[in-house]
Amino acid sequence: MSALPSSAEVLVIGAGPAGLALAASLVDKGVDVVVIDKQAEAANTSRAAVVHARTLEVLRELDITDELIARGIKVETFTVRERDRVLLHVGFDDLPTPYPYTLMCPQNVTEEILLKHLRDAGGQVHRPLELSTLEQDAEGVTATLASGETIRARYAVGADGMHSVVRDQTGIGFTGDTYAQSFLLADVHLDWAEGPDQVRLFFSPEGVTVLAPLPGDHYRIVATMDEAPEHPDVADCQALMDSRGPRTNPITIADVVWSSRFRVHHRLADHYREDRVFLAGDAAHVHSPAGGQGMNTGVQDALHLASRLASVIREGAAETTLDEYETERRPIAEGVVSFTDKMTRVATLGHASLRGLRNTALRALDFIPAVHHKMAMNLSELGTDPQRK
After folding, report:
1. Mean pLDDT of 248-264
2. Which of 223, 224, 198, 193 is nearest to 213 (CA)?
3. How, if at all, do strands 102-104 and 33-36 pair?
4. Which long-range contacts does 225-229 make (Cβ < 8 Å, 24+ apart)?
5. CATH architecture of residue range(s) 177-265
6. For residue 385, is pLDDT > 70?
7. What rounded mean pLDDT belongs to the chain?
């Protein structure tokens, strides 16, 4: 890897999907970019695994959509269930898009494809480099790293996750809360009579459980628990399927490929911009994994911001152009945070009478085509496209 440059037009802190998408787009547009990340190497676990239709649309800008599709699994239907009973169907096959489905593709694959595009365009990620301080003045920003090195840039973007140093350095608030329950996350092999044609959300008194197919005959399990084990194993995942999953065709967990435990927050940055510093991805918003929208919203943020930064840096557009980023993207994240919070709270109703009312309401809504369409538009994030409003 070449030496770390001492200056750039844009400094990107964080090399997750949002940071990589932002950097790749800027480099394509001829902007001088430096990307740093505190991790010694890119993550090799699947984590976020859903790529929605709107994200596939905007990633055509980078000409990587076809490769993502080739390495993922197309799923046309989400179903909401309580055990064997289907409460609500959400179909994507009639969406107004060239991509009428949701794509199941592990985050490490998405990052690999984005990183390859960045490198092919002449960019790179400098690792492991941790930001210590970030100061700005009328002409630009100065980043001081833990190593003592400094980087001077015209603008800086914090794509450095929920615990963003950039956000803390700029004093931007991160308003919201943390769910009381913890989340189990596991990629498994399983034996089951039913196939990988749907993403299934199982509602139960104990919490919500998502079961989704992944490439390589894997399945992703995401489940809320009062206290998830630190390293979930076969027995933990089997217990979830036994207590929350289908009864008629029960699921047998064969093995666990990878697993983790995490806490989920629903938080939104008070601002996306502080003078010459911007936030993107999880640094700007975090929320429940219900619906799989976190990474998608972050990638869309990044490409929106890249377009406006390039127009100011390369085309001489007014600085006020950059205000459009927060004006247009923050309300979208606010809607996603609210939508996923409602989904999570509805899914985890504990009182039997409330669950009965919920199930009856969902079954009634399942007969209304407009409800299906609205849910599909929200989940796919096509509803965030101004041209479709």
Report:
1. 89
2. 198
3. unpaired
4. 225/181, 225/182, 225/183, 225/184, 226/181, 226/182, 227/182, 228/182, 228/183, 228/184, 228/261, 229/184, 229/261
5. 2-Layer Sandwich (3.30)
6. no
7. 87
Q: Residue 325 carries which side chain, given as an amino acid letter?
A: Y
Of 131, 195, 196, residue with least CA distance to 169:
131
| CA 340 to each of CA 143, 223, 337, 368: distance values in angstroms, whole numbers, following the listed order | 35, 14, 5, 21
Least confident of 62-66, 250-254, 285-289, 349-353: 349-353
Burial of 215 (0-12, 13-18, 19+ CB in 10 A): middle
Tell me, what's the pLDDT at 313?
Answer: 96
Residues in Cβ contact with 341 at an 8 Å cutoff, skipping those fewer than 6 apart: 266, 287, 288
Q: What is the rounded end-to-end Cα distance, in angstroms, of the chain?
A: 45
- Residue from 182, 341, 162 nearest 262 by CA: 182
142 burial type by CB count under 10 A (0-12 exposed, 13-18 middle, 19+ buried): middle
Question: Taking the domain 1-48+106-173+270-345, which CATH number applies?
Answer: 3.50.50.60
Q: Using an 8 Å Cβ cutoff, are 289 and 183 in contact? A: yes
Q: Of 303, 35, 296, whose CA–CA distance to 156 is shortest?
A: 35
In the three-class reduction of DSSP (H, G, I as helix; E, B as strand; rest coil), residue 260 is classed as: strand
Answer positive or negative: Cα dihedral of 107, 227, 195, 342: negative
Residues 6+ apart with CB under 8 A from 316: none
For the chain, give every domain's residue range. Answer: 1-48+106-173+270-345, 177-265
Burial class (CB in 10 A: 0-12, 13-18, 19+), 368: exposed
Query: What pLDDT shows up at residue 131?
Result: 95
